[in-house]
Amino acid sequence: MSYKGSFADDIVFKNTEISDCANGIQLAGEDDDKGDYNAEYVTIENSIFENVDKNVLNYYRGGYDESTVGGTLVFKNNTVKESGSKEDSKILLQTRGIVNLDFSGNTFKDNPTPFVIVLWGEKGQESVNNTLENSGEIKTEQNLKMKLMY
Fold first, then answer.
1. Which of 42, 85, 96, 127 lies most in the core, judged by the most C-beta atoms within 10 Å?
2. More confident residue, 46 or 39
3. How distant, in Å, are the alpha carbons of 2, 13, 58, 87, 105 from that of 124?
4. Euclidean distance between CA atoms 56 and 116, whole angstroms
5. What are phi and psi of 123, to 5 degrees?
């Protein structure tokens, strides 16, 4: 876990296995929506997530400040199996407010959440060569609903 406002430059997981745990990667300490997010660049590649009770990833950027790059996530060539059974949000990979996303070459198998991920269409996010097998859908929303700051 990276703490609120830590604004790490890079967090990288490559060839990693995360299994049999309550939560996956938590980068959602920001709760006041002022843009104090946890990390600028997050890379998760060639990794396996299996039997993670809640979300596999929660990477959050709140606020309206368009002067920041807005978070960059590479989630590529990973396998996610049997995860998300206790996730309240119904989304396996939460990337709320993250602007730049490479979401490609992943395999999702036997995950009970209704949604694997919700992409931000306005920012050009897209799913490329991902495989879904008995898992939720990949949804694209054109515009994200934002909390009012006042």
1. 42
2. 46
3. 27, 24, 20, 26, 17
4. 10
5. -95, 10
**Which of 55-64, 107-116, 135-144 is least confident?**
55-64
CB 79 within 8 A of CB 106: yes
Q: Is residue 59 a contact partner of residue 91, using CB atoms and an 8 Å limit? A: no
Beta strands of the chain (E only): which ranges? 8-14, 17-21, 25-27, 39-45, 48-52, 57-59, 72-76, 79-81, 91-94, 100-104, 107-109, 115-120, 127-128, 131-133, 137-141
How confident is the prediction for the chain on average, in pLDDT? 86
Rounded-to-10 torsion of CA 42, 88, 118, 106: 60
Question: Is the separation of the CB atoms in 68 and 39 below 8 Å?
Answer: no
With a CB cutoff of 8 Å and minimum separation 6, the contacts of 29 are 1, 2, 3, 4, 5, 6, 38
Q: How far is it, in rounded angstroms, from Cα 52 to Cα 48? A: 10
Q: Rounded CA gap, 22 and 128, in Å?
A: 28
Q: Which of 61, 71, 76 is nearest to 30 (CA)?
A: 61
Task: Tally the residues of the chain.
Answer: 150
Residue 149, pLDDT score: 43
